[in-house]
Amino acid sequence: MAQKSTIIYTKTDEAPALATSSLLPIVQAFVKNAGINMETRDISLAGRIIAQFPERLKDDQKISDALTELGEMVKEPDANIIKLPNISASVPQIKATVAELQAKGYDLPDYPEDPKTEEEKSVKAKFDVAKGSAVNPVLREGNSDRRAPKAVKNYARKNPHSMGEWKSDSKTHVASMSSGDFYGSEKSVEIEEATNYRIVFKDKAGNSTLLKNKAPLLAGEIIDGAVMSRKALRAFFAEQIEDAKKKDVLFSVHLKATMMKVSDPIIFGHVVTVFFKEVFEKHAADLKELGVDPKHGLGDLYSKIQSLPEEKRKEIEADIQAVYAESPELAMVNSDKGITNLHVPSDIIIDASMPAAIRSSGMMWGPDGKLKDMKAIIPDRCYSGIYEETIENCRKYGALDPSAMGSVSNVGLMAQKAEEYGSHDKTFEMAGDGTVLVLDDSDKVLIEQPVEEGDIFRMCQVKDAPVQDWIKLAVKRARETGNPAVFWLDKNRAHDARLISKVEKYLPGQDTKGLEILIKTPVEATRFSLDRIREGKDTISVTGNVLRDYLTDLFPILEVGTSAKMLSIVPLMNGGGLFETGAGGSAPKHVQQFQEEGHLRWDSLGEFLALAVSIEHLGKSYGNDKALILAETLDKATELVLENGKSPSRKVNEIDNRGSHFYLALYWAQALAEQDKDADLKRIFQPVAAEMAAKENVIAEELLSAQGRPVDIGGYYAPDEDLKSLAMRPSATLNAIIDAI
Ligand SMILES: NC(=O)C1=CN([C@@H]2O[C@H](COP(=O)(O)OP(=O)(O)OC[C@H]3O[C@@H](n4cnc5c(N)ncnc54)[C@H](OP(=O)(O)O)[C@@H]3O)[C@@H](O)[C@H]2O)C=CC1
Ligand SMILES: O=C(O)CCC(=O)C(=O)O
Ligand SMILES: [Mg+2]
Which parts of the sequence bind Mg(2+) (predicted)? Predict the structure, then answer.
C-alpha cells in the first residue's frame, strides 16, 4: 500500500544512481518538514537480478522484488513515484552484472546462453524478467505527457547549445526496406466482445505448435499481427552494404534492442552476420562451438574467441580485418577503442542515436575518429520516415536554430503495455515455414500470417481505456496551451487506421471548441511540426508508444540540447502519479568520465522538475499546503540554477553534478526563507539559507577539489554504497548543514 505522505524515489543505475547519492539526502532533509517521507526502491539491474534468486543468497544479500511491488502500487490512487532512468539490459550487460555480483560473493548462476535442461530454462526465465526494458512497461499504468518547461526553453533560447551546420550536399540518408517488413505485412482487428486469444503456428504438414497460451482480450481492444521476413531483411542488408560503399558513407544501424527485446536483437544478429558473412561462414563450426551469438554483437564474438588457441584466434581476427578492408566504413560508438556500431546492440539505441547524428550535421564518427556522412539503416518503415523527413528538412533549410525555434511536446499512448513496446511475450522467431494464427475462444481466426523459417512474427495490443485516456489528455494539453495537437497516424497502416477510427469516435465526446486538432501521417506531421518550429511556433505531437519514445529525444535534443531537461509526467489511470525524470537514459559515458577523472557531468534537471511536480501532486491530493510551498520554491530554485549557470559543465575541474545540487539547495533554502505563506518553513530555512550563503565559497571549493583524479566506487553495476556516498558527498561543510536540518 502506498502511504499518503510517501514519495517513492527509485534507485537505478549508472549516472542517475550516482547523482541520487548526492541529491536524495538534500531532498529528504527539505521535504521532511512538510511531513513527506521519501523512500527508495531498488529497481537497478543488479537489484532486479538479485531479487530473482533469493533461495541462493544469504539473508544480508537478499533484496525484495521492488519492481513487482511498484507494479502493484501504480494501480493505487495514492501512488506517487519518481522514476529515474534505469538500464534496459542487453545480454552482455546482464553477464557483466552477474560476474560483478559473483565476485562480490553472491552465489548467482551464470546466464544460460543456450538452456537445455529444465533447470537452465528456469534460470534463464528469471534473468529474462530483468532483461531489456523490464521496468518501464510495468510502471507505466498511464499515458505520457512530456514537454520542455518554459524556463528550460527560455534558457535554451538565451543560451543556445551548439548545433552542427547542415550542407545541402550532405550524403546522409535513411534506408528502409521496401517490402517484407512489419509495415508492409501488418494486419489489425478490433475485438468486439471480450474473449481470449492464443497464438498457434501451423507448419506446411499441418502440425500445430502452441506459441502462446490463452490470454485475455477486452472489448474494444485493437490487436495487430505483422511479420519481418528473414530473407527480405538479409537481402536488404546486403544491398545497403554495397550501396554504402558505393556512396562512400558510413554504414550505421539504428534499432531499439532494449525495448524491442525479442525482435530487434534478432534483426541486429542478421546485420552482423550479413556484414561479416565470410567470417561467420568460414568459421561456422568454431563459432558455434564457442557459443557465439550474433544477436549480442561483434563484441560477443571478440570476447569468446579469446579462449581459442592463439593461431585460430589470429586467423579469425585476420578474417574480420579482411572484411573491414572490403566493406564500407562502419559508424563508431567509440573510435579510440575500436568499438563499432555492430559491437553491442544496447549501444545503438535509435531514440538517442539518430537525434545525436542529426544534431552533428547528420554525421557520425568514423573509424578514423572523424565525423562523416552516414547511411542510417532503419529496416522497418513504420517510423523511419520521420528521420528521413527531418534530414531532408535540414538539408534543405539548414540546421535548426535553438535560439529561435519553437517546441514540439508529446502526448504518448503508453498505458498498459501499449503497442510494440508490450509485444515481447507475443513475438516469435519462426522455426519453419507455415502460418501463424491468432485464434479466439471459439477458434475464430483473428489474424493469419504466412511465415517462412526465421521470420519474426509479432503481435501487439492496445486496450480501449488507454486510448480514450490518451485522446482526453491530448485535448487537455491543447486546451491548456492553445497549441495545435497533431495525431501522428498513418491511414495506410492497418493499426493506425483502426486508431484513427477510435480518434474519430471519441473526439466528439470531448470539448474541442476552438482547438486545432489534426490527424497527419508521421511524415506529414514531421514536416508540419518542423515548418512551425522554424517559425518559432509550438505544436503538440500526439503519438503511439514508439513515436512517443523517438520524438521525446528527437525534439528535445534539437531544441534544448538534451532530453534530460524534459518534464515527463505519467498521470496514472487510477489517479496516482508517476513522475519520470527527463526522457533520456542512464548515460554510461558519464560514469566512465566520473571513474577516470572524478567529474560527473550528469544534469539532474529532470529530477528537479519531476520532484517539483511530484511534491505538488502530493500537496494537491492531500491538502498539504507545506508541500505546495516546497514545490513552488523548488521550481524557483531550479530556474535560478539555470539562470545563474549552475548546471554541470562537461569538463573536469568545473562545476559538476554535485555542485549543481549544492546551488539547488542554496536557492531552495533561500526561496523558503523569503516566502511568507508558511512561518514554520520560513523559520526552519532562514538559518539554513544564511549558513549556506555564508559558506558558499568553502563548499564550492570542497566540491571542486574532489575532482581531477580517478574515483573508485567499488563496482559498476553494484557499487559500494558507502564509497559511492563518500564520492558523491565530498563537502563536509555542506553535509553538516544538510544533516542538521
Ligand atoms: N527512461 C529510461 O529508463 C530510459 C533508459 N534508457 C537506458 O539508458 C541506457 C543508455 O541509453 P542511451 O541510448 O545511451 O541514452 P542516454 O540518454 O543515456 O545517453 C545519451 C546521451 O544523452 C546525454 N544525456 C542523457 N541524460 C543526460 C543527463 N541527465 N545530463 C546530461 N546529459 C545527458 C549524454 O550526452 P553526452 O554524452 O554528450 O554528455 C548521453 O551520453 C540504456 O541502458 C537504455 O536502455 C534509455 C532511455 C530511457
Ligand atoms: O525502457 C526503456 O528501455 C527506454 C525508455 C525510453 O527510451 C523512453 O521512454 O523514452
Ligand atoms: Mg526514449
Answer: 351, 549, 553
Mean pLDDT, residues 507-525: 98
pLDDT given for residue 348 in this prediction: 87
Q: Per-residue pLDDT for 3 more than 70?
A: no
Beta-carbon count within 10 A of 317 CB: 15
Identify which of 70, 83, 339, 349 to mutate to test ligand 1's pocket (most ligand atoms within 8 A of the CB).
349
Q: Secondary structure of the chain: what % helix, strand, coil (to 5)?
A: 50, 20, 35
Q: What is the pLDDT of residues 633-654, one digit of tens each?
A: 999 999 999 999 999 999 999 9
Mean pLDDT of all residues belonging to the chain: 97
Q: Cell digits for 434?
A: 507455415
In this structure, the residue with its CA closest to atom 35 of ligand 1 is 587
Query: Which residue's C-alpha comes closest to atom 27 of ligand 1?
Result: 564
CB neighbours of 435 closer than 8 A, spacing ≥ 6? Answer: 201, 202, 448, 449, 450, 451
What is residue 168's DSSP assignment?
T
User: Which three-class secondary structure string do you get for 528-560?
Assistant: HHHHHHHCCCCEEEEECHHHHHHHHHHHHHHHH
DSSP 413-465: --TTT-GGGG-GGGEEE-SSSEEEEEEETT--EEEEEEE-TT-EEEEEEE-HH
Domain ranges of the chain: 6-141+572-740, 173-182+230-401
User: Are the C-beta atoms of 286 and 312 separated by less than 8 Å?
Assistant: yes
